[in-house]
Amino acid sequence: xxxxxxxxxxxxxxxxxxxxxxxxxxxxxxxxxxxxxxxxxxxxxxxxxxxxxxxxxxxxxxxxxxxxxxxxxxxxxxxxxxxxxxxxxxxxxxxxxxxxxxxxxxxxxxxx
Amino acid sequence: xxxxxxxxxxxxxxxxxxxxxxxxxxxxxxxxxxxxxxxxxxxxxxxxxxxxxxxxxxxxxxxxxxxxxxxxxxxxxxxxxxxxxxxxxxxxxxxxxxxxxxxxxxxxxxxxxx
Lengths: 112, 114
Fold this sequence. Notes:
heterodimer, A: mainly beta, four-stranded antiparallel sheet, globular, B: mainly beta, 12 strands, 0% helix
């Protein structure tokens, strides 16, 4: 089954404790991206990658890191989480030039 | 800057009725795609319908159809014969052929009442 898998689905952490949210896709897509969803703001892109070892900032990259060592995986790293990073996070992937993006199940992150 | 605007934060409709959700966008690109995504309480992002900008014919998927007005940069979603399962947040989104970046509107929360 074609899918994007994110883990964990729920995470509560404390300020400053490094965390990683994993994302994996099995469709051999070149393009992968991370979004955060906040009430009244829709989904905003954090980082994206067009291929292995190629990553770039989206609209709200501050406080986040990503890596793309393998085509299928695109983890999101919060080196020192802060309460303003409390949000719902989505990983997505699609073929370059194709029109449909596939989304993971979402990760609800709470930073206290 | 490319933007997507959904001016209706919340809407409600009675079961079996028809409802239209509005979306406008702004771009100078000629090659792009438009989408409506549904997000039910499960949080899953589900593609409802998509439209290629170069196609004049409006897309239709069962009870869901769009009114694509390219000159006006408008892309509204019509849901016919509304069902309780249509209750969800709906996001309008835009993707250019040049950057592959998805840009979302702020969403419209739709409640379907029995």
